[in-house]
Amino acid sequence: xxxxxxxxxxxxxxxxxxxxxxxxxxxxxxxLVFAGIYNHQTKQYLDFWGEQLKKxxxxxxxxxxxxEVALKGADKGLAQLPESGEQWVLKGKVLDWGQKYDVxxxxxxxxxxxxxSVWKRxxxxxxxxxxxxxxxxxxxxxxxxxxxxxxxxxxxANELGPWEQRVMETTALLANHYRGWxxxxxxKILDKSMDRLAKQFPSKAKAFIEQRNRALNxx
Length: 219
Known about the structure:
The protein has one domain (2-218): Tetratricopeptide repeat domain (Serine Threonine Protein Phosphatase 5, Tetratricopeptide repeat), CATH 1.25.40. The protein contains nine helices and no strands. The protein has helices at 2-56, 64-80, 85-100, 109-125, 130-142, 148-160, 165-177, 184-200, 202-218.
């Protein structure tokens, strides 16, 4: 009997950790399913806005109700997977549209802080992903916050993804647009990124290079 009891105790000692792992897996699986459902709706709005912007151009407007529904979906997905960088990026993309089309009040300090904190959190959860820092830099630029945090994020994006096309193109755009606002060291690094773009994608870099040359000739 004593031997049988010891055997049963050992079996439970093995079974309990397995049951915990299995239960955790089931819960996480449910979270992934529900997040996927909410994300599908949110992504549909993002795709729809993109398509309508292409069709309507400057006549495009956003309905506040649509923005609120998309944001609610992003928040629900985030509640399921709060440690997912992708979920924070999805919410950030919704807020981007709201910022651009005045349905997410830019004049409200709380809204600005919330907007930036979303993109900042994405960099914390994906610290080695260049696009997280690039998007954070763009968010600060959208609020005209051309400061040390903006430069740091943009430099980090270039450090992590020096040959990534979107990193190089966005860097070229910002390097030209904010020339004279940036520190000399930052400007030099961003100009080198523009040179890399010219080597890798000469046709896409042509307009940026011409704009840079005009600016330098005028200075």
